[in-house]
Amino acid sequence: MVNGTSATLMLQTIMVLMENQNGTTNYPGTGDVERCYDNYGCFSKGYPWTENRPDNHFPMPPESMAIRYPTFTRRNRKVPVFLKADNIEKIKNANIDPKGPFYFISHGFLEGGHKAWIQDMTNALLNQEGNDAATVMIVDWMGGSQPPYGQAVANIRLVGVMTAHLIHNIYEVLELSNVDNFHFIGHSLGAHLAGYCGHALQKKFNLKLGRITGLDPAAPYFSKTVTLVRLDRSDAKYVDIIHTNALPLYMSGLGISEPIGHVDFYPNGGSVQPGCSASSSPGGDLATSVMRILGCNHVRSYEFFIESITPTCPFTAMQCESYEAFLAGNCTTCDLKHFCIPMGYHSYSMYKRLHDGGLVNTNSHIALYSMTGPNKPFCRVHYEITLKVSNSTESRTRGPESGKVLVTLVDKNNNKSDHKFLNDEQKYYKPGEIEKKMIAVKDRGHPPLYVIVEWKYETNLFNPMTWRLLKSPSIHIEYLKLSSIEYNTDITVCPKLNKPVVANLPTIMKTKYCKFTK
Question: Which residues carry out catalysis (predicted)?
């Protein structure tokens, strides 16, 4: 398995190859600063399209990209109807239900509309309760998503405009009053394609998309650019973003880090996702392993979104000053200072409530944080754990203890959560010390009634503070307080008769034991 340095070098090599493959795409009149494509308009290569970009291209002609719009409904899940941007007759004969809603899904670089995740998302949307009349249209621009990367970046400008033409034609054929129930979902480059579509709809047809969801929008060529060049919150009435790989390219990051929507979700901090490390990736040859690792964080965004359509738990994310502040337990109560919004598909309903209540405005953005699991189902529920080390005579006599605290939550049905360490590394706990941490566990359907606590202790030969020659490793915990974000509950549990937690000996802590606390 490769390490992080090897992965970074591989990614840099891949990006260089993306740029160099086939050289620069040239068409007649390469010296021009503007190129026009029939009724889709003209595309400039001047500012701001040169900002923070190593090169610049015109979009390829539409016929070269062979753009298709396979369209699915509950009546035709397996065999799609293929639409074209400006073919009115195909739209009339597609038997599209005007009640909607209407979904558009776009892939990113090196992909196509046939990908399994797109079919999974399509089925999840069609299966959603209340979506009997839903139509899902795939923006399949595989002919334009191939290397070099800079050319694919240019191509989405034209594909976005073409998709705006399709939406306008559907709007006219179905005699709709607006496009409020049109939802464009784009991954990576597809997210910015959605932005171009939304912008063109406003500029050319005076229509505004109801919603755009950007799934880890691509960073290369889009980071630190003006809003015209990338997806931003002016491109639809509601723009929500899920950031999952927001790191610099030299650190193997592919997603944009800037908050660019009305609501920006940063699960697990938005850059590195659980389960995506080299050690957790299955074997294979070097190149395959590297690409799996590099892509893992980036694709988590659409995996999260697909799960959010019919989630196993609320998928709650909380507004906070930073992810570090969130992990430290500084944001645990959903209130006017810390909004709580479900990540993904169902985020709009909560945002609309906040907006209609005058609590947010469309010119601002909300950054929210959450934690997920390393594999499916990813959804977790959050608890702030407050631990107080006893300041009793016994505790002070023992002095500071070095180790890790492991907790397991148990509900009324005796269902146990997964085991969670409060800290990844061994640390010192001093008598009287209070520590706060956020943890996330699988939802068992009920809040916990009691907690099983374990003390994990490791001796370090080079650190005398960890030596235990005459006494067993243990820690005196006065209490644990658990505050639930999702269930809005608080419980405080204590060890029975103030007994210490001895290394590798599970200790049950319950609320009724707190009466013995001095």
Answer: 188 (nucleophile), 216 (charge relay system), 298 (charge relay system)
What are 27-69's pLDDT values in tens digits?
A: 334 457 899 998 999 999 999 999 888 888 999 999 999 999 9
Task: Consult the annotation and say whether 235 binds a ligand.
Answer: yes
Contact 120, 87 (CB under 8 A): no
- The length of the chain is 518
Same domain, 402 and 274: no
Catalytic residue among 188, 271, 289, 347: 188
Q: Around 374, how many Cα atoms within 13 Å sit in the side-chain half-sphere?
A: 9
Domain containing 436 equals 381-516
Which CATH number is 474's domain given? 2.60.60.20
Strand ranges for 66-150 from DSSP E: 69-73, 76-83, 102-106, 135-139
Is 188 a known active-site residue? yes
Whether residue 177 lies in the annotated active site: no
* Residue-wise pLDDT tens digits, 391-419: 999 888 877 888 899 999 999 999 999 99
Tens of pLDDT, residue by residue over 436-486, are: 999 999 998 899 999 999 998 876 545 555 555 445 788 999 999 999 999
**Which CATH number characterizes residue 90's domain?**
3.40.50.1820
Annotated ligand binding at 38? The verdict is: no
Report yes or no: 386 and 393 within 8 Å, Cβ to Cβ: no
> Torsion angle of alpha carbons 339, 341, 347, 348, nearest 10°?
-30
Active site residue 419: no
